[in-house]
Structure formats: structure tokens, C-alpha cells
Amino acid sequence: MGKTPVRMKAVVYALSPFQQKVMPGLWKDLPGKIHHKVSENWLSATLLLTPVIGTYSYAQYYKEKEKLEHRY
């Protein structure tokens, strides 16, 4: 059972320089979309970011306290 080569056509896609409106709906009403996403998910974002920011600030405080403690 030999393999026979199969001819394939190459397909090339290109945009016309006169039709550059690729995704116009993405940028339409962008501030309204951002406001909707923030107002819809503010509780989840707060519950996620509060422990992360709290842990980071505590670590910075502890590191600074250790640095000042061993100063003399």
C-alpha cells in the first residue's frame, strides 16, 4: 500500500485596503461596556483583591519593621 501524493490548493486571505472595518463593534460604547462589567462584578473583584492587597501590605510592613529592628 503506497502513499500517493495529493495536490492541495493554497488559500490566501487578505483585507482590502479600502475595507478596514474589521471589528467596529468592539470599540463602540466602550465606556458603557466597562462601566457595566465593573458594576456587575465589583463584589467579586473586591473579595479577590482585598486579601491579596492586605497580604502584600502586611509583608511590606513586616519587612520594614525587621529592617528597622536590626538597624543598631
Automatic annotation (TrEMBL):
Pfam families: Cyt_b-c1_8 (PF10890). It comes from the Eukaryota. GO terms for cellular component: mitochondrial inner membrane; respiratory chain complex III. It is found in: Mitochondrion inner membrane. One of its GO terms (biological process) is mitochondrial electron transport, ubiquinol to cytochrome c. Its main location: mitochondrion. Belongs to the UQCRQ/QCR8 family. This is Cytochrome b-c1 complex subunit 8.
